[in-house]
Amino acid sequence: MARGTEIVIIGGGIVGLSIAYHLAARGCHDVCVLERRQIGQGATSKATGGIRQQFSSEINIRLSQESLKRFERFEEEMGCPADFRQVGYLFLASSGEDWAWLQEAAALQRRLGVPVELLTPDEAGGLVPGLRTGDLLGATFCGTDGIADPHAVLHGIAGQARRLGVRILEGREVTGILRDGGRVQGVQVKDGEAVVAALVVNAAGVHAKEVGLMAGVEIPVEPHHRQAFVAEPLPALAGLIPMTVELRSGTYLHVERNGSVVLGGGDHGDRRGFDERLDWSLLPRLIEGVTHRLPALESARIQRGWAGLREMTPDELAIVGPALDTEGFFVAAGFSGHGFMHAPAIGKVMAELILDGKASTIDISALSLDRFRTGQLVPERAVF
Prior knowledge:
Layout: E1 2-10, H1 14-25, E2 31-35, H2 43-46, E3 50-51, H3 58-72, H4 74-78, E4 89-93, H5 96-111, E5 116-119, H6 121-125, E6 138-142, E7 146-147, H7 150-163, E8 167-170, E9 174-180, E10 183-189, E11 194-202, H8 208-214, E12 222-231, E13 243-246, E14 251-255, E15 261-265, H9 283-293, E16 302-312, E17 319-322, E18 329-333, H10 339-356, H11 371-374
Parallel strand pairs: 1-2, 1-11, 2-8, 4-13, 11-18
Antiparallel strand pairs: 3-7, 4-6, 5-6, 9-10, 10-11, 12-15, 12-16, 13-14, 14-15, 17-18
Helix pairs in contact: 1-7, 1-10, 3-10
């Protein structure tokens, strides 16, 4: 049996749902989201909730700035809180190379209007009690960056999308893209149902590559294994502590509202593939990285951990826009760990692209799929 809709979005994570919401908010209510499991069970469920403007590329900075506006007024727009806490992001540099690129990135961020500060080691130490600063050369801090609750944000967007008429269908795995010549006609679902559609959006996260191949489109997205651990609350870290990133080790930490300390990073690029099992053997290296910078964590007891997948591209920038050789097929994938923080902006620009023919809020040409064909790649450096 076939059913019809105007736009099908493959993937019910934060990005797919944001696109659906923004399309509906613009008056396009005939939108159907197909999720292979339940909404938010992919990368969104494993996100640590960080939201920052401190990137090395202009496009990521602009996406963050636009998204930040939406997070700041999320409750007003969606009718529920996002638990957005603007505790700031603190980047720490202990090598000449890291300090040089932090300063270079900060200059670009300031030019684009980001209120980032260059700090001395002592000033950085004043933001995080017990921080070891003797080997630091400098730091950057942006107080408007912060942390939100991925679960609350996802379900807030999904609820508002549903109220605007979006159909969100769970347990619907797409197994094929219907095409007629060089144009998509809809999708085939695993149970045999066909959904006829004028436009198809591939927001399938780590599965974006296989979905692309169904449409004859090569999408260079690969799954990378990432994980995080939660340590018990520490009195020394009570209060508002910024998300703190140690560049030397690639590790980060932040303090949850209940005082628990989330620890992650240090495993960038270690494992690829779809294995989501937690690897406890990587914990000692993480602990070494975070305790070097914050000795108080040496006494902290690890309570639990989790693992998930990031959808990585060769230049660690997202792919957003149409597939030029397949009419009616759009891509919003490859966010390289930044899908949660950029989802509000991506939803808005994708709605503009689909409904108006071009994105007007932000120039997203740097995220074109065609850049991999031309070789015009400028990698994002601030990926951890």
